[in-house]
Design a protein that fits this description.
With 279 residues, this protein is of the alpha/beta class. The chain contains eight helices and ten strands. A ten-stranded mixed sheet has the order 3-2-1-4-5-10-9-6-7-8, with helices on both faces. The chain is elongated, with a radius of gyration of 21 Å. About 4% of the residues have low confidence.
Length: 279
């Protein structure tokens, strides 16, 4: 099935990583690609108009150069330059595409990523899944890691991950973690039967989520990781050698849509691989 992809382009290393990843995907899948740049500004400031107009001309030239290069490889490419707030424009554009691709911020001191506020708002507010491409080399990476928690959003994340694993012929790791209720101060430790019971329920949840899907994707090698812990941290650990991590986002409504759930936020903070956030 054809997939339409929009790339949030900037003339930066992050923008070029996003383009490289999206164009490779478009070539593999025969997808339609749109390259989009947004030129912002404080509307109404004297003299700003000429600056913005020149910025839009430069952005258009940059996009057309990239588009011509990709067309030479047989990829169907369109370009679009908008004026306004980059977050709002990309969120609006995401309503008519199957996937939005943006570049991740560079690694900061100590190897930690620092997600910019624009990136987080775009991921949280977009209507379609968003792929965030980090500064990591894809060579030697294999497999798809997906976190599930029984929610409708995680079911969509699982569907995306299954389709990706089947398309590439790579193994899928399904991650489900759990946390016990807070231990009362009067108790020294959790009863073992309680911990075993929670583990069993989590295993049953995973089987209920996965079993029916595997009949539709019989060729996929599936590994189940079900354990006590924090989901964002465990997904990030397992995805360090993977090609992709897939998580769900629960942002909804005019305010909530600009905030990510704790799991997707944690994985984006670690940025262990290309991260796809599914709504």
């Amino acid at each position: 099935m054809e997939q339409s992809i929009i790339v949030g382009m900037t003339d930066t290393d992050a923008g070029r990583r996003a383009l490289d990843w999206a164009s490779a995907r478009a070539s593999e899948r025969g997808s339609r690609l749109q390259l989009m740049t947004v030129v912002g500004g404080v509307v109404g400031v004297v003299g700003e108009g000429r600056i913005v107009e020149e910025g839009m001309r430069e952005a258009s030239s940059m996009l057309e150069r990239e588009a011509d290069r990709l067309r030479g490889s047989g990829i169907r490419v369109e370009t679009r330059v908008d004026r306004g707030d980059p977050v709002d424009r990309l969120i609006d554009a995401s309503t008519v595409f199957d996937l939005l691709v943006i570049g991740a911020d560079e690694r900061g001191a100590g190897g930690k990523s620092h997600r910019g506020s624009h990136s987080i708002r775009i991921v949280a507010g977009a209507s379609c899944p968003v792929a965030v491409v980090p500064p990591v080399h894809p060579a030697g990476r294999r497999g798809v890691v997906v976190g599930i928690d029984g929610s409708t959003t995680s079911e969509r994340a699982l569907s995306f991950a299954l389709a990706e694993a089947e398309r590439t012929g790579e193994p899928l790791t399904v991650v489900r973690t759990w946390q016990p209720v807070p231990l009362p101060v009067t108790m020294a430790a959790y009863p073992q039967d309680y911990l075993a019971g929670v583990q069993k329920l989590a295993e049953e949840d995973v089987e209920a989520a996965v079993a029916g899907r595997l009949a539709e994707h019989p060729a996929i090698e599936v590994r189940r990781v079900i354990e006590r812990g924090f989901p964002g941290h465990r997904i990030s650990e397992l995805a360090r050698g993977a090609r992709m991590a897939v998580v769900g986002s629960h942002g909804r409504g005019p305010i909530a849509r600009f905030f990510l759930g704790s799991t997707s936020q944690a994985v984006l903070d670690e940025m262990p691989a290309v991260v796809v956030v599914v709504k």
